[in-house]
Design a protein that fits this description.
Distance between the termini of chain A: 26 Å
Shape of chain A: globular
Number of strands of chain B: 15
Number of helices of chain B: 11
Number of strands of chain A: 4
Shape of chain B: elongated
Oligomer: heterodimer
Strand content of chain A: under 5%
Radius of gyration of chain B: 24 Å
Structural class of chain B: alpha/beta
CATH class of one domain in chain A: Mainly Alpha
Strand order of the largest sheet of chain A: 1-4
Radius of gyration of chain A: 20 Å
CATH topology of one domain in chain A: ABC transporter involved in vitamin B12 uptake, BtuC
Distance between the termini of chain B: 71 Å
Strand order of the largest sheet of chain B: 3-2-4-5-6-13
Helix content of chain B: 40-55%
Largest sheet of chain A: 2 strands, antiparallel
Strand content of chain B: 15-25%
Order of helices and strands of chain A: HHHHHHEHEEHHHHEHHH
Chain lengths: 355, 351
């Protein structure tokens, strides 16, 4: 079982939105709505606080954060395609980041080797979750919840075993460049790149690859069909067991990538990597129009969903809201997002379109 | 275009792009920082005090920060506790504050193990950074200084107080916070050291970690502890706030003759000392940390330098029992005055 299909294609400019079901007007498309809200918020926040447009202190860090949270969203999206959930996103990221840290610490491996290790470990744990789900028939919610608890303990034990404290004090060559540099630091003659952190292209390639997987590849389409109707998928000869395991492996792999990138952004491979991933992992895809029931995903929507949450977070930070106000606002956004999902679901069903 | 064509097209595009990037590209090493490195006057210094998240311990920082603003004539002092115990969020909060014009930071790092990365990030952009109330794990500190309670010493004092209250023998339990935090490891070392000094007369029978999340978690854990072995323990030493409150209340309610030593000095715990349900507590010095921290940050922004960059300074810990419950604060204020004097005399070098 492999991720061959996933890694095969860093490809193609982001597709124009073809997932809009025929029959729904363009404004009912959640992606358009999101884009409008994002633009409106950016204008609002920049008007209230011009420092929102500060390149070094606002825009660059925001892009780096966004890269991580878009991938966290995609990790959840991979299993939402099946109508499954992955509650172990935080700890899959933590274990992967541990594996990468250990590789650097013990083997003094180059940066890219640690990344590969993180991806493989993530994918293996994901595949394990998928295998347990398919062989026992237990709900993915329960399996991944149990797995998260198990891994939580494991992460703590692993760090206690491998380090004195709870983090690796390693800095493989290139880590600081990946963390601090933007393309603006690299110039060809007088022309320098845009102020885009170096982690952004990694995220971009991933987003395109996942997009291509679900839109163009057979494996991706079959995952969606499995999510849409397990029975129908099985009757049409789709190897549903294998697709379920692959989707979970993909989810694990993306967790591994997110954990790695967060470790780079934070500057350390530590036990707390991934702690805050769970809620954002649902928020981004659901905001973007991915159905919790499975069978329909929106990769572009997930990126926009992650962007919206980043913009809100940053804007409210700059406006110096107090903690309680911040939490209320984030709660309201969540509730709205989930209600919108329900409305869209009903709308889609009423039109007889099962996406 | 089918998938195969798309794939090869994309591969070519990516290859061309990377080649273009690799060829003829040179790294521009000019630091893209701001100009805060030049000396400022006090009214240009804007200090942000940023704890790791909301916690009763940090509340005195608010008033102390405002007091410092008045006293030193600072541009502004703000207090921001929205980091929510998440290092990523804290980094974000710090950058947002920097974007707002704050140029000196007193930080309680969420994660002592990677807070140095955050410090580097801020100092390389020309900001003044102090580690307050918690030091980075390990031996290096990339902030200008760390002004914090020496947690190992404080835990040692607390355990000594518990052992004294127990009459120098018996079974002791240690309740503390997040195990994957290097400060917790240091606290455990401090307690162990005090226990070792009794030559086996006092046994550390259990160390319960990860119960400082909230009061409910601590209460549940303490209830389980008392139910399981309430009759064969003589002392409980707390090195975290929530377990301290929970164990004082639970022991009082159960009527067991267990001596409880708490941490910090909020009204609940002081009331416990007065009514006898808490044998002693170890108070820290949050006001001193905020006041002296702000003072030193201002001096650094004005052009002073640290004689030893990254030095660790103990802000003091004070054993409070029924004997000195009404007078310990004077002792603490004296320590704060002394700390500020020490900065002028020893730690800072001003031309």
């Amino acid at each position: 079982m492999g991720e061959a299909t996933l890694t095969s294609a860093p490809a193609a400019p982001p597709q124009e939105d073809s997932t809009t079901p025929s029959g729904l007007p363009w404004w009912a498309n959640p992606r358009v709505g999101l884009l409008v809200v994002i633009v409106a918020l950016v204008i609002l926040f920049s008007a209230l606080r011009p420092s929102f447009l500060n390149v070094d202190l606002t825009l660059v860090p925001m892009q780096a954060d966004l890269s991580v949270f878009a991938i966290v969203g995609l990790a959840q999206l991979a299993v939402l395609s099946l109508g499954h959930m992955n509650l172990a996103v935080p700890r899959m990221a933590a274990v992967s980041a541990f594996a990468a840290g250990l590789t650097y610490d013990r083997l003094h491996a180059p940066l890219v080797v640690g990344l590969a290790v993180a991806l493989v470990v993530g994918a293996l744990i994901g595949a394990l979750a998928g295998t347990i789900i398919t062989t026992t028939g237990v709900n993915s919610f329960v399996v991944t919840l149990a797995l998260d608890f198990g891994l939580l303990g494991l992460v703590s034990l692993l760090y206690a075993w491998a380090t004195d404290g709870v983090a690796f004090a390693v800095h493989p060559a290139g880590m600081d460049a990946l963390r601090f540099d933007t393309m603006n630091n690299y110039c060809a003659g007088p022309v320098c790149g845009p102020p885009v952190p170096l982690v952004v292209p990694i995220a971009l390639v991933t987003v395109v690859a996942v997009g291509v997987l679900f839109r163009r590849s057979r494996v991706g389409r079959e995952m969606l069909m499995t999510g849409s109707s397990l029975r129908a998928a099985r009757l049409s000869g789709i190897p549903v067991t294998r697709r379920i395991i692959q989707a979970h492996a993909l989810s694990g792999l993306l967790c591994g990538l997110a954990g790695f990138l967060l470790a780079i952004n934070n500057g350390a491979f530590s036990a707390t990597i991934g702690d805050q991933f769970l809620l954002p992992s649902f928020l981004a895809p659901v905001l973007g129009g991915t159905l919790l029931a499975g069978g329909a995903v929106s990769v572009l929507g997930t990126v926009l969903g992650a962007t919206l949450t980043s913009v809100i977070q940053k804007g409210l930070n700059l406006l110096q809201f107090q903690l309680d106000q911040l939490q209320i606002l984030i709660g309201v956004v969540l509730l709205l997002a989930l209600s919108l999902d329900r409305v869209r679901h009903v709308l889609a069903e009423r039109r007889g379109v099962r996406r | 275009m089918n998938f195969r064509q798309l794939r090869s097209g994309a591969l070519v595009a990516v290859t061309v792009a990377s080649l273009a990037l690799a060829a003829g590209c040179s790294k521009n090493t000019t630091a893209s920082g701001n100009d805060a490195t030049s000396a400022l006057t006090a009214d240009q210094v804007k200090i942000a005090l940023v704890p790791g998240g909301p916690h009763p311990y940090f509340q005195p920082w608010k008033a102390a920060g405002q007091q410092a603003k008045q006293e030193f004539g600072l541009g502004d002092v703000t207090f921001n506790e929205t980091s929510g115990w998440d290092q990523t969020k804290q980094n974000d909060v710090l950058k947002s504050l920097a974007a707002q014009g704050y140029n000196a930071f007193g930080i309680f790092g969420v994660s002592p193990d990677n807070i140095n990365s955050t410090f580097q990030d801020l100092t390389r952009q020309g900001f003044q950074v102090a580690s307050i109330a918690s030091c980075p794990a390990g031996t290096t500190d990339d902030a200008s200084f760390c002004l914090a309670t020496d947690v190992e010493a404080a835990a040692y004092k607390a355990a000594k107080a518990a052992i004294a209250a127990m009459g120098g023998q018996g079974n002791l339990v240690h309740l503390t916070g997040n195990k994957v935090d290097s400060n917790t490891q240091r606290r455990m070392d401090g307690v162990q050291k005090a226990v070792d000094e009794t030559n086996g007369k006092v046994k550390l029978v259990q160390t319960i970690t990860d119960i400082d999340i909230d009061l409910q978690t601590a209460q549940r854990s303490v209830a389980d502890l008392l139910a399981a072995r309430g009759t064969d323990i003589q002392g409980i030493v707390n090195t975290a706030y929530n377990p301290a409150v929970a164990s004082a209340a639970a022991v009082k309610q159960s009527g067991l003759p267990i001596k409880v030593v708490a941490i910090d000095d909020d009204p609940t715990i002081l009331a416990g000392i007065k009514d006898g349900s808490v044998a002693a507590t170890v108070a820290q010095n949050p006001v001193g940390q905020a006041t002296v921290g702000s003072y030193a940050l201002m001096k650094l922004a004005e052009g002073c330098t640290m004689t030893t960059p990254g030095v660790t300074i103990d802000s003091g810990s004070f054993v409070v029992s029924s004997d000195n419950v009404d007078s310990y604060d004077q002792e603490r204020q004296a320590e704060t005055t002394k700390l500020r004097q020490d900065f002028d005399d020893k730690y800072l070098s001003c031309s």
